[in-house]
């Protein structure tokens, strides 16, 4: 089976999905991830059917299967915080519309940062997240929510298998809830990426490996257990190319999409350029070639 790998790409109001697909194809990717608008606001443009149609034509030509494409929710959604009920419901409605947008675009997966325990205990925060997702599922159909494994920066929730399990346990429609791993976040939360199979064993016994529907592949600027969440280019961080290459080619994760969220390169005051074409190529060839001069 072919490796399914891509990166996050932009989704502009002007070119919408067509721009995203063109960007992904320029990296020789066979999948991609995008935000349907700003990561920091709830403003969204109306989806242009013609652009979507053109984008699908290109996806078919370029070998991108829509079932591997991932949408990412904006960061402003924090379902852990239920101090203000009106606000909580506002975000339930906004996120429900976001799920409908995902469906309109022909995709079925949206990644969500579970939330941050502000104004509440971790216990309460986790319950608030499950409750919000149950409400969102009542208002929508089909689209799956992928809970992202977080670094544990500040009061971030979903920073261990147990916390993710606690959220999932309280969700009624298990068919629509899945997990998105993130190697930088896992490293920063204290998990050794060199021993990925032990992590998978533990994940499998507590949640079930079939719940892993996507992996964000990032190196980390910080040491294991730092709770920082700063992504680094593949092979230039504390995790390293070999450990990450083993994740990407792990037999037990065959067939799921791997998404790069590494930073653009701007070393030596040169122009910024995206690293994804090089990083994808290195993973396909399973050989690290230095692409930053
Ligand atoms: Fe994320
Ligand atoms: Fe991520
Ligand atoms: Zn991150």
Short description:
The protein has 293 residues and is of the alpha/beta class. The chain contains 9 helices and 12 strands.
- If classified by CATH, what would the architecture be? Alpha-Beta Barrel
CATH class membership: Alpha Beta
Classify the secondary structure makeup into a structural class: alpha/beta
Contiguous uncertain segments of 5+ residues: none
Summed over residues and divided by their number, the pLDDT gives a mean of 96
How many structurally independent domains? 1
- Strand order, sheet with most strands: 1-2-3-4-6-8-9-12
Q: Count of helical segments?
A: 9
Q: How helix-rich are the residues, as a percent range?
A: 25-40%
The amount of beta strand, in percent, is 5-15%
Q: What distance separates the N and C termini?
A: 33 Å
Describe the largest sheet.
8 strands, parallel, barrel
* CATH topology group: TIM Barrel
Calculate Rg over CA atoms: 18 Å
Number of strands: 12
Instruction: Identify every distinct bound molecule in the structure, by name, code or SMILES.
Output: fe (iii) ion, zinc ion
Layout of strands and helices, then pairs:
Blueprint: E1 5-8, H1 16-26, E2 31-34, H2 49-62, E3 70-72, H3 85-104, E4 109-112, E5 115-116, H4 122-139, E6 144-148, E7 156-157, H5 161-169, E8 177-182, H6 183-189, H7 196-206, E9 212-217, E10 219-220, E11 231-232, H8 241-248, E12 258-260, H9 276-285
Parallel strand pairs: 1-2, 1-12, 2-3, 3-4, 4-6, 6-8, 8-9, 9-12
Antiparallel strand pairs: 5-7, 10-11
Helix pairs in contact: 1-2, 3-4, 4-5
Bound molecules: fe (iii) ion (2 copies) and zinc ion (ZN).
């Amino acid at each position: 089976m072919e490796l399914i790998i891509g990166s996050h790409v932009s989704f502009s109001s002007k070119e919408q999905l067509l721009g995203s697909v063109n960007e992904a194809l320029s990296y020789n990717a066979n999948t991609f991830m995008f935000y349907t608008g700003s990561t920091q606001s709830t403003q969204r443009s109306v989806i242009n059917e013609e652009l979507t149609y053109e984008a699908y034509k290109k996806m078919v030509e370029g070998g991108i299967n829509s079932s591997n494409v991932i949408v990412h929710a904006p960061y402003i959604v924090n379902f852990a915080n239920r101090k203000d009920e009106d606000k909580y419901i506002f975000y339930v409605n906004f996120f429900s519309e976001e799920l409908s947008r995902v469906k309109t675009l022909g995709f079925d997966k949206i990644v969500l940062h579970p939330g941050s325990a502000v104004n509440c205990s971790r216990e309460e925060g986790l319950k608030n997240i499950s409750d919000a997702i149950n409400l969102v599922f009542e208002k929508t159909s089909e689209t799956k929510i992928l809970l992202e494994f977080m670094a544990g920066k500040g009061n971030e929730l979903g920073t261990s298998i147990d916390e993710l399990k606690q959220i999932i346990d309280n969700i009624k429609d298990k068919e629509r809830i899945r997990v998105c791993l993130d190697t930088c976040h896992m490293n920063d939360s204290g998990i050794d990426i060199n021993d990925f199979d032990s992590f998978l064993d533990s994940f499998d016994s507590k949640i079930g490996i079939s719940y892993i529907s996507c992996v964000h592949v990032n190196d980390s600027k910080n040491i294991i257990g730092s709770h920082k969440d700063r992504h680094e280019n593949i092979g230039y961080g504390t995790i390293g190319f070999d450990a990450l290459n083993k994740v990407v080619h792990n037999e037990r994760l065959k067939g799921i999409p791997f998404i790069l969220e590494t930073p653009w390169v701007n070393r030596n005051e040169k122009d910024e350029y995206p690293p994804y074409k090089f990083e994808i190529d290195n993973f396909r060839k399973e050989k690290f070639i230095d692409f930053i001069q």
